[in-house]
Amino acid sequence: MTINIILIIFSLMTLVILVITYFSYNRKKNFVILLNRQKQLIFMSLPIVLYIILFTYVPLWGWTMAFQQYKPSRSFSEQQWVGLHWFKFLFEDEMFLRTIRNTVVMSLINTSLGFVTAIGLALLLNEVRKILFKRFIQTISYLPHFLSFVIVTGLVQAMLTPDSGALNNAFIALGFIKEPVHWFAEPNYFWGIIGITYIWKEVGWNTIIYLAAMAGVDPNLYEAADIDGCNRYQKMWHITLPCIKPTIIILLIMSIGRIMDAGFEMQYLMRNPLVSHVSDTIDVYVYVFGLRTANFGLATAAGMFKNVINIILIFLANDLARRAGEERLV
């Protein structure tokens, strides 16, 4: 969803540039001549505009199901319209309200831990002088990103198995616990397991853009800091972090636009009746209580609510960044 929002913003910016350019010329100028002068911009934007129309605007037609008692066997004109019934049902459903809580909490955990670990790892890798060792660490940290969530959850479940799990065996050997812990039977552990698994899988991949930003820092700043007697930690705090601050702000705004997207695969694959009240997210709710029961109107309403909130949040975050004088998407 966030990628679609960025593409929409880009297309709107292109349209605004064309309109401003048009009105900046004498109105007597032929618009065809103007388009010919801007043909490079138009050709560059055309694939993105087509992508947005095909995969973003055309599917919005399906949102009409949120206001219908949708039956696949009926044509559009034969559908029964129910107005805001499904939205009222959602906000009266305790299970859905619980999924909102779970989604927001898990998303905040993943976002906060993801930012701290990715920036920290990028700072450490940026200080490594041995190129081969640096590349080795980068490769090792990137690899989990390319594993499917099915494989990742299988590995996690195998490690946390009460009888033969590696984590329980290690903790017992070290004397931290006396008997195996049933990790997936305790709701208090679930959010932590999801957060740690997400960090392990994505931390290496998330460092790429930070390392790219650090590569653009002026080396003269570090030389001046050396002359002033700064150590590595002082250079990281007073030079590297301030120089990549715009990148951090932009990525933070984009992450805020995904607050309602805590995930589906890990939560669904790791859920069980003992932890379902803390594991179910909005996406799991849409699948389990909407699509599996063929209640397409309810599923569409829940998905529509999630996407609208994400859009509102990303624009609010962008406006707050603008008011604070920081970098912003638009």
Question: Helical element count?
Answer: 16
In percent, how helical is the residue content? over 70%
Oligomeric nature of the chains: single chain
Shape: flat
Mean pLDDT: 85
Taking all Cα atoms into account, the compactness measure Rg is 25 Å
Class based on secondary structure composition and strand pairing: mainly alpha
- Poorly predicted segments: none
Across the major sheet, the strand order is 1-2
Can you characterise this structure?
The protein contains 16 helices and two strands. The protein is mainly alpha-helical. The longest helix is centred in the middle third of the chain and has 34 residues, at 94-127. The radius of gyration is 25 Å and the shape is flat. The two termini are 17 Å apart.
Could you write a compact summary of the structure shown?
The chain has 330 residues and is mainly alpha-helical.
Protein topology:
Elements: H1 2-24, H2 31-37, H3 39-57, E1 68-69, E2 80-81, H4 85-92, H5 94-127, H6 131-142, H7 149-159, H8 166-174, H9 187-215, H10 219-227, H11 232-243, H12 245-256, H13 265-270, H14 276-279, H15 282-291, H16 296-323
Antiparallel strand pairs: 1-2
Helix pairs in contact: 1-3, 4-16, 5-9, 6-9, 12-16, 15-16
Give short descriptive properties of this protein:
single chain; flat; mainly alpha; 330 residues; 2 strands; 71% helix; two-stranded antiparallel ribbon
